[in-house]
Design brief:
Layout lengths: L6 H17 L3 H10 L7 H15 L18 H13 L15 H21 L6 H13 L1 H24 L5 E15 L8 E12 L5 E12 L3 H4 L10 E2 L5 E10 L3 E10 L1 H4 L30 E9 L4 E10 H4 L7 H4 L2 E12 L2 E12 L13 H4 L1 E4 L2 E15 L2 E14 L5 E14 L7 E15 L12 E9 L4 E10 L10 E11 L1
Antiparallel strand pairs: 1-2, 1-18, 2-3, 3-4, 3-5, 5-6, 6-7, 7-8, 8-9, 9-10, 10-12, 12-13, 13-14, 14-15, 15-16, 16-17, 17-18
Helix pairs in contact: 1-2, 1-3, 4-5, 4-6
Amino acid sequence: MAKKPNFFNRTTKIKIKLLKTISTTFPAWSILLLLSTSVSAESPSFQEELSQTQPQVADMGEVTPVHQLLDVPPSDWKSQAFQALSDRTLCLGENYQPDERLLTRYEFAAGLQVCLDQINQKYLSDDTSLSEANQALVARFRQEFAQELATLRDRTDNLETRTAQLEDQRFSTTTKLNGEVLFQLGDSFSGDDQSQLFTGYRARLNFDTSFFGEDRLRIRLGARNTGELEEVEDTFMVRLGVDGESDNEIETELSYDFAVGERIQVVTGISSVGADDVAEVLNPLSSSGQGAVSRFARRNPSTLRGPGGSGAGIQYEFSDSVQVAVGYFVDSDDAAAASGERGLFGGSYSAVAQLLIEPIDDLEFAFTYTRTYYREDDVRLMGATGSENANEPFGEDATSANGFGFQANWELSDRFGVGGWFGYTDANQETGNQSATILNGAVIFNFPDLGAEGNEGGIIIGVPPIVTQNDDSEREDERTSLHIEAIYRIQLNDQTIITPGVFVITQPDHSDRDPIWVGTIRTQFRF
Protein backbone atom coordinates (compact mmCIF):
# COMPACT_ATOMS: atom_id res chain seq x y z
CA MET A 1 0.00 0.00 0.00
CA ALA A 2 1.46 3.36 -0.98
CA LYS A 3 2.26 5.88 1.75
CA LYS A 4 -0.14 8.88 1.82
CA PRO A 5 1.47 12.24 1.17
CA ASN A 6 1.91 14.47 4.25
CA PHE A 7 -0.46 17.31 3.33
CA PHE A 8 -0.25 18.61 6.91
CA ASN A 9 3.48 19.29 6.80
CA ARG A 10 3.33 20.67 3.24
CA THR A 11 0.65 23.21 4.19
CA THR A 12 2.54 24.21 7.29
CA LYS A 13 5.73 24.82 5.34
CA ILE A 14 3.91 26.93 2.77
CA LYS A 15 2.36 29.13 5.44
CA ILE A 16 5.61 29.59 7.33
CA LYS A 17 7.44 30.54 4.12
CA LEU A 18 4.65 32.97 3.36
CA LEU A 19 5.07 34.36 6.86
CA LYS A 20 8.77 34.98 6.20
CA THR A 21 7.93 36.85 3.03
CA ILE A 22 5.32 39.21 4.43
CA SER A 23 6.39 39.59 8.02
CA THR A 24 8.67 42.53 7.32
CA THR A 25 5.84 44.50 5.70
CA PHE A 26 2.70 43.52 7.60
CA PRO A 27 3.68 42.52 11.18
CA ALA A 28 0.11 42.00 12.37
CA TRP A 29 -0.62 39.66 9.44
CA SER A 30 2.27 37.40 10.41
CA ILE A 31 0.77 36.86 13.85
CA LEU A 32 -2.64 36.12 12.39
CA LEU A 33 -1.06 33.66 9.97
CA LEU A 34 0.66 31.87 12.84
CA LEU A 35 -2.60 31.63 14.73
CA SER A 36 -4.41 30.31 11.68
CA THR A 37 -1.90 27.49 11.22
CA SER A 38 -3.59 24.61 13.06
CA VAL A 39 -0.54 22.43 13.74
CA SER A 40 0.86 20.60 16.69
CA ALA A 41 3.70 22.27 18.50
CA GLU A 42 5.34 18.90 18.68
CA SER A 43 5.68 18.66 14.87
CA PRO A 44 9.44 18.49 14.17
CA SER A 45 9.09 20.33 10.87
CA PHE A 46 6.96 23.04 12.47
CA GLN A 47 9.40 23.50 15.35
CA GLU A 48 12.31 23.76 12.95
CA GLU A 49 10.61 26.34 10.75
CA LEU A 50 9.30 28.29 13.74
CA SER A 51 12.74 28.45 15.31
CA GLN A 52 14.01 30.11 12.10
CA THR A 53 11.13 32.58 11.99
CA GLN A 54 11.01 33.71 15.65
CA PRO A 55 14.16 35.88 15.45
CA GLN A 56 12.66 37.73 12.46
CA VAL A 57 9.43 38.40 14.37
CA ALA A 58 11.39 39.57 17.39
CA ASP A 59 13.22 42.15 15.25
CA MET A 60 9.99 43.72 13.99
CA GLY A 61 9.65 46.00 17.02
CA GLU A 62 6.40 47.14 18.52
CA VAL A 63 3.32 46.26 16.49
CA THR A 64 0.80 49.07 15.89
CA PRO A 65 -2.48 48.30 17.70
CA VAL A 66 -5.23 47.35 15.29
CA HIS A 67 -7.63 50.00 16.64
CA GLN A 68 -5.16 52.72 15.57
CA LEU A 69 -5.43 51.61 11.96
CA LEU A 70 -9.17 52.23 11.83
CA ASP A 71 -10.95 55.28 10.40
CA VAL A 72 -13.37 57.38 12.44
CA PRO A 73 -16.98 57.21 11.12
CA PRO A 74 -19.61 59.80 12.15
CA SER A 75 -21.33 57.16 14.30
CA ASP A 76 -18.21 56.44 16.37
CA TRP A 77 -18.14 57.60 19.98
CA LYS A 78 -15.10 59.76 19.15
CA SER A 79 -17.05 61.80 16.58
CA GLN A 80 -20.02 62.22 18.88
CA ALA A 81 -17.84 63.11 21.88
CA PHE A 82 -15.85 65.59 19.83
CA GLN A 83 -19.06 67.26 18.64
CA ALA A 84 -20.23 67.55 22.23
CA LEU A 85 -16.89 69.04 23.32
CA SER A 86 -17.02 71.54 20.47
CA ASP A 87 -20.59 72.59 21.34
CA ARG A 88 -19.76 73.10 25.02
CA THR A 89 -16.47 74.95 24.56
CA LEU A 90 -17.07 76.59 21.15
CA CYS A 91 -13.48 75.62 20.31
CA LEU A 92 -14.33 75.53 16.59
CA GLY A 93 -16.66 78.52 16.59
CA GLU A 94 -20.40 78.87 16.85
CA ASN A 95 -21.13 77.88 13.25
CA TYR A 96 -19.12 74.66 13.19
CA GLN A 97 -20.85 71.85 11.29
CA PRO A 98 -19.58 68.30 11.87
CA ASP A 99 -18.17 66.40 8.90
CA GLU A 100 -20.57 63.60 7.99
CA ARG A 101 -18.02 61.62 6.01
CA LEU A 102 -15.59 58.90 7.10
CA LEU A 103 -12.42 60.52 8.47
CA THR A 104 -8.96 59.04 8.79
CA ARG A 105 -7.41 59.27 12.23
CA TYR A 106 -5.05 61.99 11.02
CA GLU A 107 -7.92 64.05 9.60
CA PHE A 108 -9.76 63.67 12.88
CA ALA A 109 -6.60 64.54 14.83
CA ALA A 110 -6.10 67.72 12.78
CA GLY A 111 -9.50 69.07 13.85
CA LEU A 112 -8.87 67.88 17.38
CA GLN A 113 -5.57 69.76 17.51
CA VAL A 114 -7.27 73.03 16.52
CA CYS A 115 -9.91 72.49 19.20
CA LEU A 116 -7.37 71.69 21.91
CA ASP A 117 -5.30 74.77 21.03
CA GLN A 118 -8.36 76.99 21.34
CA ILE A 119 -9.30 75.41 24.67
CA ASN A 120 -5.78 75.98 26.01
CA GLN A 121 -5.81 79.60 24.89
CA LYS A 122 -9.30 80.31 26.21
CA TYR A 123 -9.08 78.64 29.59
CA LEU A 124 -5.54 79.73 30.35
CA SER A 125 -6.16 83.39 29.50
CA ASP A 126 -9.15 84.00 31.80
CA ASP A 127 -10.59 82.76 35.06
CA THR A 128 -13.15 80.45 33.47
CA SER A 129 -12.47 76.88 34.44
CA LEU A 130 -13.02 73.87 32.25
CA SER A 131 -15.58 71.47 33.68
CA GLU A 132 -14.42 68.14 35.04
CA ALA A 133 -16.35 66.27 32.36
CA ASN A 134 -14.66 68.28 29.64
CA GLN A 135 -11.27 67.85 31.30
CA ALA A 136 -11.74 64.11 31.35
CA LEU A 137 -12.78 64.10 27.71
CA VAL A 138 -9.78 66.21 26.72
CA ALA A 139 -7.45 63.88 28.62
CA ARG A 140 -8.94 60.83 26.92
CA PHE A 141 -8.62 62.37 23.50
CA ARG A 142 -4.99 63.29 24.19
CA GLN A 143 -4.28 59.71 25.20
CA GLU A 144 -6.27 58.14 22.37
CA PHE A 145 -4.61 60.28 19.66
CA ALA A 146 -1.20 60.84 21.25
CA GLN A 147 0.68 59.43 18.28
CA GLU A 148 -1.26 61.40 15.65
CA LEU A 149 -1.07 64.67 17.61
CA ALA A 150 2.68 64.26 18.06
CA THR A 151 3.12 63.69 14.34
CA LEU A 152 1.08 66.77 13.46
CA ARG A 153 3.10 68.90 15.89
CA ASP A 154 6.33 67.70 14.31
CA ARG A 155 5.04 68.54 10.84
CA THR A 156 3.86 71.98 11.98
CA ASP A 157 7.20 72.74 13.61
CA ASN A 158 9.01 71.67 10.47
CA LEU A 159 6.77 73.86 8.31
CA GLU A 160 7.30 76.87 10.58
CA THR A 161 11.05 76.32 10.44
CA ARG A 162 11.03 76.19 6.65
CA THR A 163 8.80 79.29 6.47
CA ALA A 164 11.15 81.22 8.74
CA GLN A 165 14.06 80.16 6.57
CA LEU A 166 12.31 81.40 3.44
CA GLU A 167 11.56 84.73 5.11
CA ASP A 168 15.21 85.11 6.09
CA GLN A 169 16.37 84.33 2.56
CA ARG A 170 13.78 86.28 0.56
CA PHE A 171 14.94 89.11 -1.66
CA SER A 172 13.46 92.04 0.26
CA THR A 173 10.46 92.92 2.38
CA THR A 174 9.82 96.04 0.32
CA THR A 175 11.26 95.42 -3.17
CA LYS A 176 9.54 93.70 -6.06
CA LEU A 177 11.30 92.51 -9.18
CA ASN A 178 9.50 92.58 -12.50
CA GLY A 179 10.73 92.61 -16.03
CA GLU A 180 9.96 92.74 -19.72
CA VAL A 181 11.57 91.41 -22.87
CA LEU A 182 10.52 92.61 -26.32
CA PHE A 183 11.41 90.90 -29.57
CA GLN A 184 10.73 92.57 -32.92
CA LEU A 185 10.77 91.38 -36.50
CA GLY A 186 10.25 94.02 -39.16
CA ASP A 187 10.96 95.47 -42.56
CA SER A 188 10.15 98.54 -44.66
CA PHE A 189 9.17 98.73 -48.30
CA SER A 190 9.32 101.65 -50.71
CA GLY A 191 9.86 102.39 -54.38
CA ASP A 192 13.61 102.40 -53.87
CA ASP A 193 13.73 99.61 -51.31
CA GLN A 194 17.03 99.73 -49.43
CA SER A 195 16.06 97.88 -46.23
CA GLN A 196 16.22 94.23 -45.27
CA LEU A 197 14.26 92.08 -42.88
CA PHE A 198 15.62 92.78 -39.39
CA THR A 199 15.20 91.66 -35.79
CA GLY A 200 15.66 93.49 -32.53
CA TYR A 201 15.08 93.34 -28.82
CA ARG A 202 14.65 95.37 -25.67
CA ALA A 203 15.10 93.97 -22.17
CA ARG A 204 14.18 95.66 -18.88
CA LEU A 205 14.47 94.71 -15.23
CA ASN A 206 12.59 96.87 -12.71
CA PHE A 207 13.37 96.90 -9.00
CA ASP A 208 10.37 98.61 -7.41
CA THR A 209 10.72 99.51 -3.74
CA SER A 210 8.09 101.01 -1.44
CA PHE A 211 8.97 102.43 1.96
CA PHE A 212 5.58 103.76 3.06
CA GLY A 213 3.06 101.98 0.84
CA GLU A 214 2.20 105.15 -1.14
CA ASP A 215 5.58 105.56 -2.82
CA ARG A 216 7.79 103.79 -5.34
CA LEU A 217 11.52 103.91 -5.89
CA ARG A 218 12.27 102.38 -9.28
CA ILE A 219 15.69 101.25 -10.44
CA ARG A 220 15.53 100.04 -14.03
CA LEU A 221 18.27 98.19 -15.85
CA GLY A 222 17.86 97.92 -19.60
CA ALA A 223 19.48 97.00 -22.87
CA ARG A 224 18.28 97.19 -26.46
CA ASN A 225 19.33 96.68 -30.02
CA THR A 226 16.82 97.35 -32.80
CA GLY A 227 17.51 98.78 -36.23
CA GLU A 228 16.78 102.48 -36.80
CA LEU A 229 14.83 102.67 -40.05
CA GLU A 230 15.35 106.41 -40.46
CA GLU A 231 19.00 105.70 -41.28
CA VAL A 232 17.82 103.54 -44.20
CA GLU A 233 14.75 105.48 -45.38
CA ASP A 234 16.15 108.95 -44.60
CA THR A 235 13.15 110.20 -42.61
CA PHE A 236 12.11 110.28 -38.94
CA MET A 237 8.59 109.33 -39.98
CA VAL A 238 9.42 105.61 -40.16
CA ARG A 239 10.78 105.34 -36.61
CA LEU A 240 9.43 102.47 -34.54
CA GLY A 241 8.08 102.83 -31.03
CA VAL A 242 11.08 100.84 -29.80
CA ASP A 243 14.39 101.23 -31.63
CA GLY A 244 18.03 102.20 -31.13
CA GLU A 245 20.84 100.41 -29.35
CA SER A 246 22.61 100.61 -26.02
CA ASP A 247 26.07 99.80 -27.49
CA ASN A 248 26.34 96.63 -25.39
CA GLU A 249 26.03 98.69 -22.21
CA ILE A 250 23.42 98.54 -19.45
CA GLU A 251 21.11 101.56 -19.42
CA THR A 252 20.20 102.64 -15.90
CA GLU A 253 17.11 104.62 -14.96
CA LEU A 254 16.22 105.93 -11.53
CA SER A 255 12.96 107.55 -10.41
CA TYR A 256 10.97 108.07 -7.23
CA ASP A 257 7.22 108.74 -7.01
CA PHE A 258 5.32 109.46 -3.82
CA ALA A 259 1.98 110.75 -2.61
CA VAL A 260 1.41 113.74 -0.35
CA GLY A 261 -2.00 113.31 1.19
CA GLU A 262 -4.82 112.06 -0.98
CA ARG A 263 -4.63 114.59 -3.82
CA ILE A 264 -0.97 115.25 -4.56
CA GLN A 265 1.41 112.95 -6.44
CA VAL A 266 5.09 113.86 -6.87
CA VAL A 267 7.28 112.47 -9.67
CA THR A 268 11.07 112.77 -9.51
CA GLY A 269 14.01 111.20 -11.31
CA ILE A 270 17.58 111.69 -12.42
CA SER A 271 17.72 109.61 -15.59
CA SER A 272 14.31 108.53 -16.76
CA VAL A 273 11.53 111.12 -16.31
CA GLY A 274 9.97 113.48 -18.81
CA ALA A 275 6.89 115.49 -19.63
CA ASP A 276 4.78 112.39 -20.29
CA ASP A 277 5.47 111.11 -16.75
CA VAL A 278 3.66 114.01 -15.10
CA ALA A 279 1.25 115.08 -17.86
CA GLU A 280 -1.34 112.45 -18.75
CA VAL A 281 -1.24 110.73 -22.14
CA LEU A 282 -4.83 109.97 -23.14
CA ASN A 283 -3.96 107.69 -26.04
CA PRO A 284 -5.00 104.10 -25.13
CA LEU A 285 -2.40 102.85 -27.64
CA SER A 286 0.56 104.77 -26.21
CA SER A 287 2.43 101.82 -24.65
CA SER A 288 5.72 101.03 -26.35
CA GLY A 289 5.34 97.36 -25.49
CA GLN A 290 1.62 96.84 -26.16
CA GLY A 291 0.37 99.82 -28.16
CA ALA A 292 1.21 101.49 -31.45
CA VAL A 293 4.24 100.13 -33.29
CA SER A 294 5.39 103.54 -34.59
CA ARG A 295 6.95 106.35 -32.57
CA PHE A 296 4.68 109.13 -33.85
CA ALA A 297 1.41 107.31 -33.04
CA ARG A 298 2.14 107.07 -29.31
CA ARG A 299 1.64 110.70 -28.20
CA ASN A 300 1.52 114.37 -29.23
CA PRO A 301 5.10 115.43 -30.05
CA SER A 302 4.34 119.14 -29.64
CA THR A 303 3.83 118.91 -25.90
CA LEU A 304 4.64 115.39 -24.68
CA ARG A 305 8.08 114.94 -26.21
CA GLY A 306 11.10 117.02 -25.39
CA PRO A 307 14.32 117.11 -23.39
CA GLY A 308 14.13 115.06 -20.23
CA GLY A 309 15.67 112.50 -17.96
CA SER A 310 16.24 114.50 -14.78
CA GLY A 311 13.62 116.62 -13.05
CA ALA A 312 10.43 116.62 -11.05
CA GLY A 313 6.72 117.13 -11.45
CA ILE A 314 3.55 117.41 -9.37
CA GLN A 315 0.00 116.28 -10.06
CA TYR A 316 -2.80 117.83 -8.03
CA GLU A 317 -6.40 116.62 -8.10
CA PHE A 318 -8.84 119.42 -7.39
CA SER A 319 -11.65 116.89 -7.61
CA ASP A 320 -12.43 113.53 -9.17
CA SER A 321 -12.93 115.28 -12.51
CA VAL A 322 -10.22 117.98 -12.57
CA GLN A 323 -6.45 117.56 -12.31
CA VAL A 324 -3.55 119.96 -12.80
CA ALA A 325 0.05 118.91 -13.45
CA VAL A 326 3.31 120.86 -13.71
CA GLY A 327 6.89 119.73 -14.21
CA TYR A 328 10.42 120.70 -15.15
CA PHE A 329 12.81 118.27 -16.83
CA VAL A 330 16.38 118.52 -18.11
CA ASP A 331 18.40 116.36 -20.45
CA SER A 332 20.24 113.87 -18.23
CA ASP A 333 23.66 114.54 -19.76
CA ASP A 334 23.20 118.28 -19.38
CA ALA A 335 21.98 117.95 -15.80
CA ALA A 336 25.12 116.01 -14.86
CA ALA A 337 27.47 118.53 -16.47
CA ALA A 338 29.05 121.33 -14.42
CA SER A 339 29.64 123.54 -17.46
CA GLY A 340 28.11 127.00 -17.34
CA GLU A 341 26.33 126.40 -20.64
CA ARG A 342 24.67 123.23 -19.38
CA GLY A 343 23.66 122.06 -15.90
CA LEU A 344 20.09 122.09 -14.57
CA PHE A 345 19.24 125.51 -16.02
CA GLY A 346 21.65 125.95 -18.91
CA GLY A 347 21.05 122.78 -20.89
CA SER A 348 18.17 121.48 -22.96
CA TYR A 349 14.95 121.41 -20.93
CA SER A 350 11.16 121.06 -20.96
CA ALA A 351 8.68 122.84 -18.69
CA VAL A 352 5.15 121.45 -18.87
CA ALA A 353 1.74 122.38 -17.50
CA GLN A 354 -1.52 120.49 -18.07
CA LEU A 355 -5.19 120.76 -17.21
CA LEU A 356 -7.02 117.43 -17.32
CA ILE A 357 -10.83 117.33 -17.23
CA GLU A 358 -13.16 114.33 -17.03
CA PRO A 359 -16.67 115.81 -17.34
CA ILE A 360 -18.39 112.41 -17.48
CA ASP A 361 -17.35 108.82 -17.09
CA ASP A 362 -15.30 107.46 -20.00
CA LEU A 363 -14.66 110.92 -21.49
CA GLU A 364 -11.41 112.77 -20.86
CA PHE A 365 -9.70 115.71 -22.50
CA ALA A 366 -6.58 117.69 -21.65
CA PHE A 367 -4.99 121.02 -22.52
CA THR A 368 -1.20 121.00 -22.34
CA TYR A 369 1.43 123.72 -22.64
CA THR A 370 5.14 122.95 -22.93
CA ARG A 371 8.07 125.33 -23.07
CA THR A 372 11.15 123.68 -24.55
CA TYR A 373 14.72 124.71 -25.19
CA TYR A 374 17.33 122.83 -27.19
CA ARG A 375 20.93 123.91 -26.99
CA GLU A 376 23.04 124.18 -30.12
CA ASP A 377 23.85 120.92 -31.96
CA ASP A 378 21.27 119.06 -29.86
CA VAL A 379 18.02 120.03 -31.59
CA ARG A 380 15.20 117.47 -31.98
CA LEU A 381 12.24 119.82 -31.59
CA MET A 382 9.56 117.19 -32.39
CA GLY A 383 11.25 114.34 -30.54
CA ALA A 384 12.53 112.75 -33.77
CA THR A 385 9.06 112.46 -35.33
CA GLY A 386 7.76 114.21 -38.42
CA SER A 387 9.89 115.87 -41.06
CA GLU A 388 13.50 116.95 -40.77
CA ASN A 389 12.40 120.57 -41.08
CA ALA A 390 10.03 120.16 -38.13
CA ASN A 391 12.84 118.83 -35.93
CA GLU A 392 15.44 121.37 -37.07
CA PRO A 393 13.54 124.44 -38.33
CA PHE A 394 16.72 126.53 -38.00
CA GLY A 395 19.31 123.88 -38.55
CA GLU A 396 21.56 123.13 -35.57
CA ASP A 397 21.07 126.58 -34.04
CA ALA A 398 19.79 126.66 -30.46
CA THR A 399 15.99 126.65 -30.58
CA SER A 400 13.19 127.40 -28.14
CA ALA A 401 9.50 126.69 -28.63
CA ASN A 402 6.07 127.13 -27.12
CA GLY A 403 3.94 124.05 -27.68
CA PHE A 404 0.18 123.88 -27.24
CA GLY A 405 -1.71 120.63 -27.33
CA PHE A 406 -5.22 119.31 -27.04
CA GLN A 407 -6.01 115.64 -26.62
CA ALA A 408 -9.16 113.65 -25.92
CA ASN A 409 -10.32 110.10 -25.49
CA TRP A 410 -13.89 108.84 -25.36
CA GLU A 411 -14.73 105.23 -24.60
CA LEU A 412 -18.10 105.04 -26.32
CA SER A 413 -18.62 101.43 -25.26
CA ASP A 414 -16.74 98.48 -23.82
CA ARG A 415 -15.72 97.55 -27.36
CA PHE A 416 -15.05 100.87 -29.06
CA GLY A 417 -13.32 104.14 -28.32
CA VAL A 418 -12.26 107.21 -30.26
CA GLY A 419 -9.73 109.89 -29.46
CA GLY A 420 -6.83 111.88 -30.79
CA TRP A 421 -4.80 115.05 -30.46
CA PHE A 422 -3.83 118.30 -32.13
CA GLY A 423 -0.52 120.09 -31.62
CA TYR A 424 0.62 123.61 -32.42
CA THR A 425 4.24 124.71 -31.97
CA ASP A 426 5.69 128.19 -32.22
CA ALA A 427 9.46 127.77 -32.69
CA ASN A 428 12.05 130.52 -32.34
CA GLN A 429 15.71 130.76 -33.30
CA GLU A 430 17.77 131.66 -30.23
CA THR A 431 20.72 133.06 -32.17
CA GLY A 432 18.60 135.03 -34.64
CA ASN A 433 15.13 136.42 -35.28
CA GLN A 434 13.58 133.67 -37.32
CA SER A 435 10.42 131.82 -36.27
CA ALA A 436 8.44 128.87 -37.58
CA THR A 437 5.03 127.24 -37.12
CA ILE A 438 4.72 123.47 -36.80
CA LEU A 439 1.48 121.50 -36.74
CA ASN A 440 0.58 117.86 -36.19
CA GLY A 441 -2.47 115.79 -35.28
CA ALA A 442 -4.00 112.33 -35.20
CA VAL A 443 -7.31 110.50 -34.83
CA ILE A 444 -7.31 107.18 -32.98
CA PHE A 445 -9.85 104.36 -33.02
CA ASN A 446 -9.39 101.50 -30.59
CA PHE A 447 -11.32 98.26 -30.26
CA PRO A 448 -10.86 96.61 -26.85
CA ASP A 449 -11.42 92.84 -26.57
CA LEU A 450 -11.55 92.53 -30.35
CA GLY A 451 -11.85 88.83 -31.17
CA ALA A 452 -11.16 87.71 -27.61
CA GLU A 453 -10.89 89.13 -24.11
CA GLY A 454 -7.61 90.99 -23.61
CA ASN A 455 -6.99 91.53 -27.32
CA GLU A 456 -7.20 94.99 -28.86
CA GLY A 457 -7.27 96.48 -32.30
CA GLY A 458 -6.28 100.00 -33.23
CA ILE A 459 -6.25 102.41 -36.16
CA ILE A 460 -4.29 105.67 -36.14
CA ILE A 461 -4.60 108.25 -38.92
CA GLY A 462 -2.60 111.43 -38.58
CA VAL A 463 -0.34 114.10 -39.97
CA PRO A 464 3.19 113.94 -38.55
CA PRO A 465 4.80 117.26 -37.54
CA ILE A 466 4.90 119.58 -40.55
CA VAL A 467 6.35 123.07 -40.96
CA THR A 468 3.56 125.24 -42.38
CA GLN A 469 5.42 128.56 -42.03
CA ASN A 470 9.08 129.48 -41.62
CA ASP A 471 10.87 132.78 -42.05
CA ASP A 472 13.41 130.67 -43.90
CA SER A 473 11.11 129.58 -46.71
CA GLU A 474 13.53 126.86 -47.83
CA ARG A 475 12.76 125.01 -44.60
CA GLU A 476 9.02 124.93 -45.15
CA ASP A 477 7.56 121.54 -46.05
CA GLU A 478 6.24 121.24 -49.59
CA ARG A 479 3.70 118.44 -49.28
CA THR A 480 1.46 116.97 -46.58
CA SER A 481 1.98 113.33 -45.73
CA LEU A 482 -0.44 111.08 -43.91
CA HIS A 483 0.48 108.49 -41.34
CA ILE A 484 -1.92 105.52 -41.47
CA GLU A 485 -1.38 102.69 -39.00
CA ALA A 486 -3.19 99.53 -37.93
CA ILE A 487 -2.30 97.15 -35.12
CA TYR A 488 -3.82 94.11 -33.49
CA ARG A 489 -2.69 93.09 -30.03
CA ILE A 490 -3.07 89.40 -29.22
CA GLN A 491 -2.87 88.52 -25.53
CA LEU A 492 -1.91 84.85 -25.31
CA ASN A 493 -1.82 84.96 -21.49
CA ASP A 494 -0.92 87.35 -18.67
CA GLN A 495 2.78 87.14 -19.57
CA THR A 496 2.84 86.98 -23.38
CA ILE A 497 1.50 89.51 -25.89
CA ILE A 498 2.04 89.50 -29.65
CA THR A 499 1.34 92.67 -31.65
CA PRO A 500 1.52 92.66 -35.44
CA GLY A 501 1.31 96.11 -36.97
CA VAL A 502 1.71 97.98 -40.22
CA PHE A 503 1.84 101.66 -41.15
CA VAL A 504 2.33 103.67 -44.31
CA ILE A 505 3.83 107.12 -44.84
CA THR A 506 2.17 108.49 -47.98
CA GLN A 507 4.70 111.26 -48.73
CA PRO A 508 7.83 110.72 -46.61
CA ASP A 509 9.27 113.83 -45.00
CA HIS A 510 6.33 115.81 -46.50
CA SER A 511 8.04 115.72 -49.86
CA ASP A 512 7.49 114.29 -53.32
CA ARG A 513 8.64 110.74 -52.57
CA ASP A 514 7.15 107.30 -52.98
CA PRO A 515 5.16 105.93 -50.03
CA ILE A 516 6.99 103.85 -47.45
CA TRP A 517 5.36 100.80 -45.86
CA VAL A 518 6.58 99.43 -42.55
CA GLY A 519 5.52 96.11 -41.09
CA THR A 520 6.53 94.59 -37.79
CA ILE A 521 5.65 91.83 -35.35
CA ARG A 522 6.40 92.64 -31.71
CA THR A 523 6.34 90.02 -28.95
CA GLN A 524 6.35 91.01 -25.31
CA PHE A 525 7.20 88.70 -22.42
CA ARG A 526 6.48 89.95 -18.90
CA PHE A 527 7.50 88.43 -15.61
